C-alpha cells in the first residue's frame, strides 16, 4: 500500500517583484522534511508555484499527496484553470514556464489539492511560511547556494505543552538571554499570542496599523472581538514587529463567519480577552493606532479593555482613521480597503476571507501610498551623504510679484447681502461676519 504524504507549501516576496523565497514542509511517515530556496528578482506567485513544484518533485511518484496552500492562484490554477490554458496553448498565461513544470511533475500522481487560510495560526502553514522567508534570507546571504533541506526523524520527545502547559520553564529559559525583546517574553505567557520582534532597529514614534475581526457590528449589543492583528511602522518603515491573537468571544460568531471564516470550533480553545489583555495593552499603548474606519475598532477595543479592568485604549493612544483620510482625499468615490487597493495598485492578496493581520498588512501599504507613497530613498543615507559631500548647494531664489485682485463694489455688496440672509435664517450672525 502506498504511503500518504502531507505537504504545506508557501511563497514569500519582499517587493513584487523583489527578493523572494519558497518553502515546502513535508510530513512523511518516517519523519519531516523542510525544503526552502530563494530568488533575487521574482514575484510572490512564482515563489508559490516553485514551492509546489519542489514539494511534489521531492515525493515518491506512487505516494498519495495531500497538498495545502494558502494561494488560490495555485490551487485553482492547477485544478481548474489549467485545462483552458492548455487548450489555448498557454496563450496570455503568466508564468507559463512554471505552470508547465507543475503540470509535468503532477502527471501520473494521486494528488489532493486544498486551500488553507494564510496567517491563521495553522502550524503546517506557519512552518511553510517560515521556510519561505528562510529561503529568501539564505539566498540573500549566499546567492550561489542551492535549495536547503532539513530532515527530522519522528521520535518520542518531551511535550512542553503537557509537561509545562503555562510555559513557565520556557519563560525562565528565555529570560536568561541578553537580547530577548521584553514584549516577546510577555507573549510566552500564552501560546496563542504571537508577537514578532523588530527586524530593524529604527528610532522614532511608533505607528501600529491595526485591524480587528468581531462577532458582529454592535459592541453595545454584546458583540465581541475574536481576532486582533497589528504591524509596527516607524519613520514610514515596517520594522518587522507585529502582534496577532485569536480570542474566544464566549458567544457564537453567528453570521459573521461568512465574513472572516473563523468558526466557533476554531475559537473554542483560544484565550478569553481577560487572559491576553495585559500583553495586548502593553504592546499597543503609547503608539499611534492607524485603522480603516477606526471608530469601529476603537469602540470594540475600548469596551474590551474596560471589561478587563484597563483604561480606554483611546486614552493612551493617538488614533488615525484611514477611511476618513480616504473620503477627504477621494470624495464621492468608493473608499473601502478593496477599492483603495485597486486605486493605488497595491499588489493583490487573497482576501476570500477577511483576516486581521492580513488586512493590517494591506492597510500599511495603502496608508503609505495614500500619504505620499513608500519612501523610495533611504533618508538616513541621503543625509549622511549630504554631510560628507564637499559640494555646497545653493538654493535659487526667484522673486515674482504676484498680482492682487480686489473684489468689485458690486461683489462686496452681494457678499454682505448673503451674510445678512444667513443671519436672518439662523437668528445670529454667520461665522464669516464674525471674522470680518
Automatic annotation (TrEMBL):
Catalysed reactions, semicolon-separated: Endonucleolytic cleavage to 5'-phosphomonoester; DNA(n) + a 2'-deoxyribonucleoside 5'-triphosphate = DNA(n+1) + diphosphate
Keywords: Cytoplasm, DNA replication, DNA-directed DNA polymerase, Endonuclease, Exonuclease, Hydrolase, Magnesium, Manganese, Metal-binding, Nuclease, Nucleotidyltransferase, Transferase
Compartments, record wording: Cytoplasm
A family per Pfam: RNase_T
EC number of the protein: 3.1.26.4
CDD domains the record matches: DNA_pol_III_epsilon_Ecoli_like, RNase_HI_prokaryote_like
Listed name of the protein: Ribonuclease H
Lineage: Bacteria, Pseudomonadati, Pseudomonadota, Gammaproteobacteria, Moraxellales
Amino acid at each position: 500500500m502506498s504511503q500518504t504524504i502531507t505537504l504545506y507549501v508557501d511563497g514569500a516576496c519582499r517587493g513584487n517583484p523583489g527578493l523572494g523565497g519558497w518553502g515546502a514542509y513535508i510530513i512523511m511517515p518516517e519523519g519531516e522534511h523542510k525544503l526552502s530556496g530563494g530568488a533575487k528578482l521574482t514575484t510572490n506567485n512564482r515563489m508559490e508555484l516553485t514551492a509546489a513544484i519542489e514539494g511534489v518533485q521531492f515525493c515518491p511518484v506512487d505516494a498519495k499527496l495531500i497538498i495545502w496552500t494558502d494561494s488560490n492562484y495555485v490551487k485553482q490554477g492547477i485544478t481548474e484553470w489549467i485545462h483552458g490554458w492548455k487548450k489555448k496553448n498557454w496563450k496570455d498565461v503568466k508564468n507559463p514556464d512554471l505552470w508547465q513544470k507543475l503540470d509535468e511533475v503532477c502527471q501520473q500522481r494521486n494528488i489532493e489539492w486544498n486551500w488553507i487560510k494564510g496567517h491563521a495560526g495553522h502550524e503546517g502553514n506557519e512552518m511553510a511560511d517560515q521556510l519561505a522567508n528562510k529561503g529568501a534570507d539564505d539566498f540573500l546571504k549566499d546567492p550561489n547556494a542551492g535549495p536547503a533541506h532539513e530532515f527530522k526523524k519522528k521520535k518520542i520527545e518531551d511535550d512542553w505543552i503537557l509537561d509545562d502547559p503555562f510555559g513557565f520553564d520556557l519563560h525562565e529559559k528565555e529570560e536568561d538571554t541578553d537580547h530577548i525583546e521584553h514584549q516577546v517574553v510577555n507573549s510566552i505567557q500564552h501560546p496563542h499570542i504571537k508577537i514578532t520582534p523588530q527586524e530593524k532597529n529604527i528610532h522614532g514614534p511608533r505607528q501600529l496599523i491595526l485591524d480587528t475581526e468581531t462577532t458582529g457590528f454592535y459592541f453595545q449589543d454584546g458583540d465581541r472581538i475574536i481576532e486582533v492583528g497589528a504591524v509596527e511602522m516607524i519613520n514610514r518603515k515596517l520594522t518587522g514587529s507585529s502582534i496577532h491573537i485569536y480570542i474566544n468571544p464566549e458567544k457564537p460568531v453567528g453570521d459573521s463567519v461568512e465574513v472572516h471564516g473563523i468558526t466557533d470550533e476554531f475559537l473554542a480553545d483560544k484565550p478569553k480577552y481577560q487572559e491576553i489583555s495585559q500583553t495586548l495593552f502593553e504592546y499597543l499603548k503609547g503608539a499611534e493606532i492607524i485603522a480603516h474606519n477606526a471608530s469601529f475598532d476603537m469602540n470594540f477595543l475600548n469596551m474590551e479593555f474596560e471589561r478587563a479592568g484597563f483604561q480606554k485604549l483611546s486614552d493612551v493612544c493617538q488614533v488615525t482613521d484611514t477611511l476618513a483620510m480616504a473620503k477627504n482625499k477621494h470624495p464621492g468615490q468608493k473608499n473601502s480597503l478593496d477599492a483603495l487597493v485597486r486605486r493605488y495598485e497595491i499588489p493583490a492578496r487573497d482576501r476570500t476571507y477577511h483576516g486581521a493581520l492580513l488586512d493590517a498588512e494591506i492597510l500599511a501599504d495603502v496608508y503609505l501610498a495614500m500619504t505620499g507613497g513608500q519612501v523610495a530613498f533611504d533618508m538616513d543615507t541621503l543625509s549622511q551623504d549630504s554631510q560628507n559631500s564637499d559640494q555646497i548647494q545653493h538654493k535659487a531664489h526667484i522673486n515674482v510679484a504676484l498680482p492682487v485682485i480686489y473684489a468689485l463694489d458690486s461683489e462686496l455688496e452681494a457678499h454682505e447681502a448673503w451674510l445678512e440672509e444667513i443671519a436672518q435664517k439662523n437668528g445670529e450672525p454667520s461665522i464669516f461676519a464674525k471674522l470680518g
